[in-house]
């Protein structure tokens, strides 16, 4: 049984007030709050168990190494990956995608080769490919979204041509909440020998992810959105793709031997994990994923689906509110503007006075803002601890903003 009141009690920050009002935290799409089990894991690691990993031959180093490496297996279970050696630990999706861009794409792609993106990608899944466009003449092919904010998988498949080398698309839009059916995209790409990268930063938070069933080559996640610490994350890489890659960064555990006239790289996944890693943040991420799995990813998804339906019903009742993206099956993310001249930043400021925290801006999705014809939106993004009462608080705050700007 999903007990949202008990879950909320696990998150200390949800008990505080902002501007004399109970905190209504609706910026989960940017970064989620942390349960006490994560805070405790981080505190324990720093206060009683800290040491560097892998190379120490003493108790604390062995303990830190054991806890750190155990997270690789936790992430594999979380994503339904059979071989934990296909999990590369890092600081988050941005590092993961850059690892693929520098380690796999840069040495393999030539001028005229194509990378397919959707117009609703996050900048983390755009900018690294622009680097290749600028430096190597790689062509970026854009796939447009439908009027309701959905992405038709067939349009992505139809965009694949003889020069296509990579398809990189989001599993769930951080602006529209659109869920993308990526499995047929990955299947079609695989038949054509095209690599696939899926940005799972949002999708992995809101329900179960089965990477094996998706059939992608790369799948990236970010810890701070998964109720874990910032500076933590991972990317799944198929071993066959790992074998095609050169290291992204050098130093630390990514080498076996270093000599004056050469080096011997470590085996994957260590080959792609340079320097002293984010030890404590990764341990905290492991605690966060165990917490989520303990409550059941299907249960979290069901709770958020009900919350999405309730929020949609209430927001649709505000005829002066323009919601961007109404795709069927969308997740609990709502981006909106108000009729008139009110800027998203002004709306967000007024909502904050009522204790309601939402994001305002372009949400690191410039091409999507251009497509929508707006410079910025407000975004209310819900998580496993949000409630219908908080939806009501959002509505009350929006009505106040509308009254002030009308």
Automatic annotation (TrEMBL):
Pfam families: Aminotran_5. Its EC number is 2.8.1.7. One of its GO terms (molecular function) is cysteine desulfurase activity. Keywords: Pyridoxal phosphate, Transferase. Gene3D superfamilies: Aspartate Aminotransferase, domain 1, Type I PLP-dependent aspartate aminotransferase-like (Major domain). Its cofactor is pyridoxal 5'-phosphate. SUPFAM superfamilies: PLP-dependent transferases. It catalyses: (sulfur carrier)-H + L-cysteine = (sulfur carrier)-SH + L-alanine. InterPro entries: Aminotrans_V_dom, Aminotrans_V_PyrdxlP_BS, Cys_dSase_SufS, PyrdxlP-dep_Trfase, PyrdxlP-dep_Trfase_major, PyrdxlP-dep_Trfase_small. It comes from the Bacteria. GO terms for biological process: cysteine metabolic process. Residues 24-394 form the Aminotransferase class V domain. Catalyzes the removal of elemental sulfur and selenium atoms from L-cysteine, L-cystine, L-selenocysteine, and L-selenocystine to produce L-alanine. Belongs to the class-V pyridoxal-phosphate-dependent aminotransferase family. Csd subfamily. This is Cysteine desulfurase.
């Amino acid at each position: 049984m999903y007990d949202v009141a008990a879950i909320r009690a696990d998150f200390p920050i949800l008990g505080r007030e902002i501007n004399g009002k109970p905190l209504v935290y609706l910026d989960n799409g940017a970064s989620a709050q942390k349960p006490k089990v994560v805070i405790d894991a981080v505190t324990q690691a720093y206060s009683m168990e800290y040491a560097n990993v892998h190379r120490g031959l003493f108790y604390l180093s062995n303990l830190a190494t054991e806890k750190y490496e155990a997270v690789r297996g936790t992430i594999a279970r979380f994503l339904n990956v059979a071989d934990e050696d296909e999990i590369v630990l890092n600081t988050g999706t941005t590092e993961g995608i850059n690892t693929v861009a520098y380690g796999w794409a840069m040495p393999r792609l030539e001028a005229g080769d194509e990378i397919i993106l959707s117009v609703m990608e996050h900048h983390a899944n755009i900018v690294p490919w622009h680097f290749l466009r600028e430096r190597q003449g790689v062509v970026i092919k854009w796939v447009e979204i439908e009027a309701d904010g959905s992405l038709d998988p067939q349009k992505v498949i139809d965009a694949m041509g003889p020069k296509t080398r990579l398809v990189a698309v989001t599993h769930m839009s951080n602006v529209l909440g659109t869920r993308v059916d990526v499995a047929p995209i990955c299947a079609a790409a695989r038949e054509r020998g095209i690599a696939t990268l899926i940005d799972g930063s949002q999708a992995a938070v809101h329900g179960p992810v089965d990477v094996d069933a998706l059939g992608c080559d790369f799948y990236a996640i970010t810890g701070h959105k998964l109720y874990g610490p910032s500076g933590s994350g991972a990317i799944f890489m198929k071993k066959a793709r790992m074998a095609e890659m050169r290291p992204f960064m050098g130093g630390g555990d990514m080498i076996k031997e270093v000599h004056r006239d050469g080096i011997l790289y470590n085996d994957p996944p260590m080959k792609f994990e340079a320097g002293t890693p984010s030890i404590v943040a990764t341990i905290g991420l492991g605690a966060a994923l165990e917490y989520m799995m303990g409550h059941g990813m299907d249960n979290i998804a069901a709770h958020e689906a009900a919350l999405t339906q309730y929020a949609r019903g209430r927001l649709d009742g505000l005829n002066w509110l323009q919601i961007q993206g109404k795709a069927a099956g969308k997740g609990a993310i709502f981006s909106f503007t108000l009729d008139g001249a009110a800027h998203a930043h002004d709306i967000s400021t007024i909502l904050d006075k009522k204790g309601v925290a939402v994001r305002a801006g372009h949400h690191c999705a410039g091409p999507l803002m251009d497509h929508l014809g707006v410079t910025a939106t407000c975004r209310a993004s819900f998580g496993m601890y949000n409630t219908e009462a908080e939806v009501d608080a959002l509505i009350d705050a929006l009505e106040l903003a509308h009254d002030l700007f009308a």
